[in-house]
Amino acid sequence: MTNETSNNALGFNHFLFLWFGAAISIAEILTGGLLAPLGFQSGVIAIVIGHVVGVIILVLGGIIGTQERIPAIVSTRISFGVYGSYLFSVLNVLQLVGWTAVMIIAAARSANEISKMLWGMDQLSLWSMGIGGLVLLWIALGREGGLKKVNMLAVFLLFGITVLLSNVVFKDSTALSAPPIGGMSFGEALELSVIMPLSWLPLIADYTRFAKSRTSAALGSGLGYFIGSCWMYLIGLGAAIIAGNPKPSTMMLAANLGLSALGIIVLATVTTTFLDAYSAGVSFANIFPKLDEKRIALVMTVIGTGIALWVNIEQYENFLLAIGSVFAPLFAVLLTEYFIIKNRQLRPELLVNWSALAVWALGVIMYHQFITMEFVLGATIPVLLFTSLLYKIIWGYTKEWKSCKKYPTAS
Predict the structure, then answer these.
(1) pLDDT score at 120
(2) 409 vs 407: CA distance, rounded Å
(3) Does the pLDDT of residue 364 top 80, yes or no?
(4) What DSSP assignment string belongs to 110-149?
């Protein structure tokens, strides 16, 4: 363990607050709202089952970080080699910059709606730049003790707001028995529930590598995210069914929060987007280790803010599915290698494991096939199982399908 790790060892409470705060976001509420065509009862079942599966996989990825003291993308070197990890670093940076933009766009839209209602001020671009600036400040402060306390305080405030929003949405409980309106299969709803925890897989070890123990990191991260994310989905689902509108700004104005709603939206966005931008820096540093993670994260935030000024999020659901198609088979291979085959060595001489990359590519293709089939279990669950089984079967036959660095031999 490095000195930094020793001096900054994180315990159960930190991970509980960190991941509960990460889950409280506008994006989670909006995704829960997408499940409304399924009806409330079936929607709840899809949310719970999907999150159980997704969070278990998420926690396993975090355990690798704690045991090996390495970031998430670096851990992919175990299965895919150094160059393989470079490929996934690029893909992860792209999705994290995308998430940074999505979070800033969603928050800016909600804040703009509230400012229009309060003061007649319609300044979407200004809100995007302001929220991006606050994320920059959060990253610049780093992981110092003061920020830990501020983050915990933020989570307590967000918890209170979550209770308040729940009261606004569910005060008319009779509406929750409304029948499904159709237009969405159970498998699609299940997939949208699995994807959200899955999207954090390339990040979680970036933080659990600093844990005091495997148990504290696993329980804190798993409980914090499961409770927070399910809660956000339920709020979005309920709002979409009852009011036909899962927008957080609408709910907060209905709760007569007024000016406080702006602070809530901004706070929830900053605490979540910080993780995206920081981990984008960590992934980029996997390719260029001499670069400083924090400085890269600042640059990624600027890029994400710039994207937020020029794009919309009407294709948000497709963005989520694209993430699932890449990272579900990737971590199926890695978790199989680490926990089932029990190959846990980071071999610096391993450049590319071609069999692992082939299985991953096949998993990506399968994912999109299952999406088009509208399979009752979604796409992630069957792809995880099939990819893991396939890799376990061929592992013994493809040990030589590797490109390794050749070291000069002694004469």
Answers:
(1) 86
(2) 6
(3) yes
(4) HHHHHHHHHH----HHHHHHHHHHHHHHHHHHTT-HHHHH
pTM: 0.87
* Residues making up the chain, counted from first to last: 411
With a CB cutoff of 8 Å and minimum separation 6, the contacts of 8 are 143, 210
Long-range contacts of 124-130 (CB under 8 A, 24+ apart): 125/309, 128/104, 128/305, 128/308, 128/309, 129/305, 129/309, 130/266
Mean pLDDT of the chain, nearest integer: 87
Say how many C-beta atoms besides its own lie within 10 A of residue 146's C-beta: 10
Q: Give the domain ranges of the chain.
A: 3-72+88-171+179-314
327/198 Cα distance (integer angstroms): 7
Which pair of tokens denotes residue 70? 């390495």
Tokens 């061929």 -> residue: 394
**Which residue has tokens 């099939």?**
386
pLDDT tens digits, one per residue of 278-316: 899 889 999 999 988 889 999 999 999 999 998 776 667
Cα–Cα separations (whole angstroms), residue 177 to 39, 102, 123, 183, 189? 8, 32, 39, 18, 18
Quick one: CATH architecture of 3-72+88-171+179-314?
Orthogonal Bundle (1.10)
**pLDDT tens, residue by residue, 195-226:** 999 999 999 999 999 999 999 999 999 999 99
Closest CA to 202 of 100, 380, 73, 293: 73
Dihedral of CA 137/140/142/146: which sign? Answer: negative
